[in-house]
Amino acid sequence: MLEFLLSSDAIMALLTLTFLEIILGIDNIVFISIAANKLPEQQRSKATNVGLLLAMIQRVVLLFFVSFLIGLSEPFYIIENSWLYLALSWQSIILFSGGLFLLYKSTSEIREKVETPLHDENTVKGKKIKSLSQAIIQIMVIDFIFSIDSILTAVGMTNGLSVNHNYNLVLMIIAVVISIIIMIAFANPIRKFIDAHPSIQMLGLAFLILIGFMLITEAAHLSHTSVFENEVGAIPKGYLYFAIAFSLFVEFLNYRIDKNKKSKHN
């Protein structure tokens, strides 16, 4: 276990996944803040912290469930004809469905942020909250909606790293716990930074498109799909890490250029 967690693949997956979990959690923080701000001031921080801790437990439980389904790799139905071979398993179905969901979620989120950026915030603002328990329940509902893409991203980043699915599960849980702790400790600074640099969140959503596509190809690979005797191969995760690192490097250069321009004007 320790040898796996200290391997270069596991460390890269953990760093990338923690970063993506935080980026994907920004909207979550915004909506949790809106829900908490409807309470008296002395209850707001308690609602936020309790809500995030329960959200962490909720995500860990969902990770166990999804990880169990991913472990069901034995084919239960085989499609075979002159041009197509496909061995369906629950593992491939979950990965394929997850990939489609991430593609839909990321593209719809990008469209919504460009055309109606305050739509979700206005929806949450319109809901009435009268007590701490109501706020916590609403925070958990909000987190459940936002945790689906987070969990599928975790599965996409860790699937195939280790033959033992329990190792991948531990890695996913570590990333989720770290990201929630960081969000509890630095929620406001992170939110302000993202508000000042919205392209960071756009990058995160763009990465979801990559991960969604990777999940679909991985599902095809694990189900031994071949079309006209050409088998679908898995996409090495190194390509994904490079794309994310390169995009972040370019974003960092843009940030430095903007900062230098502002300092010269001042």
UniProtKB/TrEMBL annotation:
How is this protein positioned relative to the membrane? Multi-pass membrane protein
Please state where this protein is localized.
Answer: Membrane
Task: List the transmembrane segments.
Answer: 12-36, 48-71, 83-104, 135-157, 169-188, 200-219, 239-257
* InterPro entries recorded: Integral_membrane_TerC (IPR005496)
Q: Kindly list the GO CC terms recorded for this protein.
A: membrane
Q: What keywords are annotated for this sequence in UniProt?
A: Membrane, Transmembrane, Transmembrane helix
For this protein, the record's PANTHER family field holds: MEMBRANE BOUND PREDICTED REDOX MODULATOR (PTHR30238), SLL1022 PROTEIN (PTHR30238:SF4)
**Protein family per UniProt:** Belongs to the TerC family.
Official protein name in the record: TerC family protein
Source species of the chain: Pontimicrobium aquaticum
List the lineage, top down.
Bacteria, Pseudomonadati, Bacteroidota, Flavobacteriia, Flavobacteriales
